[in-house]
Amino acid sequence: MDWAACKERFPEKFVSEERIFEHVHPGARIFIGTACGEPQALVKALLNYAQSHPSAIFDAELVQVWSLGITPTSDERFKESFRLNSFFIGDGIRSAVNNAAADYTPVFLSAVPSLIYREVLPIDIALIQTSLPDEDGNVSLGISVDIVLPAAKKAALVAAQVNSQMPFVYGDGVMNIRDLDFVVFCDEPLLTFKSEASGEVVHHIGRHVARIVEDGATIQVGYGSLPDAVLSNLEGKKHLGLHSELFSDGVADLMKRGIIDNSRKTIDPGKAVASFCMGRKETYDFLHKNSDVSFRTIDYTNSMLVIAGQRNMTAINSALEIDLTGQATAESLDGKFYSGVGGQADFMRGAALAPGGKAILAMPSTSGDGKSSRIVPRLSPGAGVTLHRGDVHYVITEYGIAYLHGKSIRERAMDLIAIAHPNFRPWLVEEARRLSLVFKDQAYSRSVYPEALETWKRTKTGQEIMLRPVRINDEPLLKEFFYSLSDKSMYRRFASARKDMPHARLQEFVAVDYSRDMVILALSRHHDREIVVGLAQYSTNEKDHTAELALVVRDDFQNQGIGRELHSYMTYLAKRQGLLGFTAEVLEDNLPALNLIKRMGFETVRKDGEVQQMRLMFNKDTGI
Predict the structure, then answer these.
(1) Could you say which of 17, 245, 321, 431 is catalytic?
(2) What is the signed CA dihedral for 243, 249, 251, 257, rounded to 10 degrees?
(3) Fewer CB near the terminus (10 Å): N or C of the chain?
(4) Contact 183, 13 (CB under 8 A)
(5) Are 327 and 374 in contact (CB under 8 A)?
(6) pLDDT tens sequence across 493-509
């Protein structure tokens, strides 16, 4: 049905804006479409009408999920006419909300449709924006379905701005022009939203996120520039799916490259499911009549039950601040309202419940100016807790990955300190000690963790292991490792009948400077976690510029080539430091170790009882 045919068939729907706003009564609740889907021409017309008819509109409530367009909150001319009530706080209304010039309703967005349907939040007039009608008179809500459809269904009166630049998006948001009370045609560019996060910090965060996202996973992307920007690092993934409240530029790019094909989704297979879109015009064009995309109402996209039913669901969100116990806020900054409850908690909790699901919180380690840490001892006073301690599983900064699920307060505090910015780690350790979150004598090295030394190796038996330097939060891993060793292995490693590995001793392994002293762990995946299967350590002897080397491998992983890989890597690191060679003390009955290091080129210098003193000089032709 073309535009002329619509006007001919439904002439009563095509009226002036003034006729529409004559229906606004004092105290009316007026719903406005969401974010980039805001009907700008209708909103401008409403404000013009209020200005020219000051007594006609009085004390009206404007209800919106997210305002990116014109807002009357800071204009004194409309102080008596309107008051905005938003379910999410954007840049345009943040100051007004924090100065009591506008209202904010903290509620999970998944619950808002129910408030509308049950008329807990009755809507008098809904101002929405749609696409052009098709031959059957069907229009699409386009890039904003979320709570717009519930509002349009329940409002006493619906006025639609029909815009040829609004894409026709399939899914729940298809309505017939018969369901609209009034229609105004205005062709204008849609509001756009630019993702501005970039640079090395974002690249490093994205690289860490990519390590966790598995092929075939269904992803959710949270609000903000950072979650969208990290998607570019998923380039090597295959058969990803999308189930998210937000459809972003990054998602469109992955779909265009075939990385998101939705072929492995448990629910809605073959469809990228979202509720609204904020992005570039190119993304809006991509959505137009794209049968691979379905926009649903937000009570469906954000339903924890639906999310939990999606196998390998992976939620990627961000936060403004997280404390050392694992509480995070995405809605408050310096004790003031910043954004909103949104849908983050629904997705993080739903993903955690999903088979193979993962809940990821990605954030820079510092504020934009680098003057404050995003990882803090305690959340700022007055902060809203968006995610509770039990909600957060993975936390990612540019400095690494912290896995908090199932960890004690002490363990998660050290895990988070390990991925904080190095400039703030001493302060965080001191505060953690003061707050009794960690040991009062918790050791700490000021040296920066050398992430570049992380590497993957394949042993002679084909096993994949990760070799990496020890971190300050590895004490629990090391404790488990040492207590997994047999008495014989412990004796051979320490040349004594040691059966305990107390906290004080373990700290000697984690507090290294990565230069004079080095500890390398060999790690293997065991179910859903990493375990230490081998350890190599060297300490520099300043007298002759060599280093004493020690190796130990878990009993159930011996004779698989792990010791050889550790030795080879430690040799490489020692040479990088300019060391001249290794020394080692090996018990005579430790035949596996003796055979290994002899194959590596060690020679016996002397024997001290049951101990062989051995040496390997790098300037000799050792064949290494």
Answers:
(1) 245
(2) 160
(3) C
(4) yes
(5) no
(6) 765 556 678 998 899 99
**E strand spans, 554-610:** 581-587, 603-608
CA 490 distance to own-chain centroid: 41
What's the rounded Cα separation, in Å, for the pair 552 and 40?
A: 68
Q: What is 200-434's CATH number?
A: 3.40.1080.20
CA distance to 31, 34, 133, 141, 600, per residue, from 149 (Å): 11, 11, 16, 8, 71
235 is catalytic: no
**CA torsion angle 352 211 254 362 (round to 10):** 60
Give the Cα separation of 411 and 403 in Å (integer): 10
CATH of domain 451-617: 3.40.630.30
Tokens of 521: 């762990």
Confidence category of residue 624, pLDDT binned at 50, 70, 90: very low
pLDDT tens digits, one per residue of 133-163: 998 899 999 999 999 999 999 999 999 999 9
Q: What superfamily would CATH give domain 3-185?
A: Glutaconate Coenzyme A-transferase (3.40.1080.10)
pTM of the model: 0.88
> In whole angstroms, how far apart are CA 298 and each of 144, 340, 565, 611?
10, 15, 51, 70
Cα atoms found within 13 Å of the Cα of residue 289, Cβ hemisphere only: 7
Rounded to 5°, the CA angle 206-209-210 comes to 85
Q: Is residue 157 exposed (0-12), middle (13-18) or buried (19+ Cβ within 10 Å)?
A: middle
